[in-house]
Amino acid sequence: MATIRKRQTLKGHVRYQAQVRKSGHPHKSATFKRKSDAIEWAAGVETLIIHAKYFPKRKLRPHTVHDTIERYLREVMPEKRESTRESQQLLLSWWDRDIGQRNLNDVTPALLSERRQKFLATPGRNGGQRSPAIANRYMATLSHVFTVAIREWEWTDENPCQRIKKLREPRGRTRHLSKEERMRLLRACKENGNRCLYAIVVVALMTGMRRGEILSLCWRDVDFKNARVVVRESKNGETRTIPLVGSGYELICDLRKLPKDKSDLVFPVPPGQAFSRHRLDIRRAWDKATRAAGIEDFRFHDLRHTFASDLAEKGANLTTISALLGHKTLQMVKRYTHLREEHGRLELEKLVSNVVVS
To answer: DSSP string of 153-183?
Structure first.
């Protein structure tokens, strides 16, 4: 059924043309530089033809993207962690507004590629330019919606997201505070109107916890006897334990003396603050504090980088840093390798300076 022909171009280059002929199906052909590629392509085409013969396409009822997202939010989203639900609901609401009226079978890779470009060209919530990493996250969330619609609901036969190449992302940020910046930031947090901001920032610097992990922290997760906290809803879905030391432990002990509310949150939502996620909103207070401290290009998540950088500069190995940050692999913490090497160089220079060569 398949034939491979060796051909030569006018410039003398060798090419291999694969042809697949099957009665009742259109003729298929393609040319490749390598014979192995031609054979592999022909075998794939034959498999598709046979598959269609024995497993003909189902007659699918028309469903819109809006219908699919609504069912996904209703049936699939409740099984996910709270932090994941919050972020993915925002991502899917954008797709719903943008292409929600379209039929699933009308959503093509070309359409999604076009909408991705529109997304990148539109300023984000803070007015800045959206990054390739954010665009990839939006596409991955929609891709899972299509996957569920194919495997579980049989609403469509193809996931167009899988045919779109991910955008190249820059290396992870390693922005961290200098000693002077740290002092300015903590001073600004103390003077800020939000009474919890200073304690939240200190805990972030002392534990490396994410903002969502800190704001979701409950008193039942704090082990005062062993001076540690248990993070039950981490980003990777695993529970991890973090020691409480120094100022972080002292602040948590001081907060324990304050009256508690029904939520059991270490940092509860103040009375009268309407916040749909039922967690303390510190975004405005954080922006105000960083402006007052004169610190530019610094996000709350960079406190986590500062924590890891401090450990690396003090000579901690990557396994320890990875465990405290809650990473499953060492790949994410390799960005701090150069800091550990700089620490090693300083220690070596101190040693060599004490050696007298006669």
So the answer is: S---S--GGGGSPPPPPPPPP-----HHHHH
The answer to whether the pTM exceeds 0.90 is no
Residue of 241, 244, 239 whose CA lies nearest to 199 = 244
- Residues 185 and 299 both lie in one domain: yes
Would you say 344 and 316 are in contact if contact means Cβ atoms under 8 Å apart? no
Q: Domain span at residue 197?
A: 179-305
Of the three residues 289, 305, 321, the one that is the final residue of a domain is 305
Let me know if residue 327 belongs to a domain.
Answer: no
Same domain? For 195 and 279 the reply is yes
Binned average pLDDT, 10 residues per bin, the chain of 358 residues: 83 86 75 88 81 57 92 92 81 94 93 92 77 91 95 90 87 78 93 87 91 90 91 75 87 84 83 59 90 90 88 79 76 63 53 49
- List Cα–Cα distances, 306 to 32, 132, 336, in angstroms: 50, 24, 10
Q: How far apart are CA 257 and CA 323, in angstroms?
A: 31
Asked whether the beta carbons of 40 and 48 are under 8 A apart, the reply is no
Rounded distance between C-alpha atoms, residue 301 and residue 329, angstroms: 19
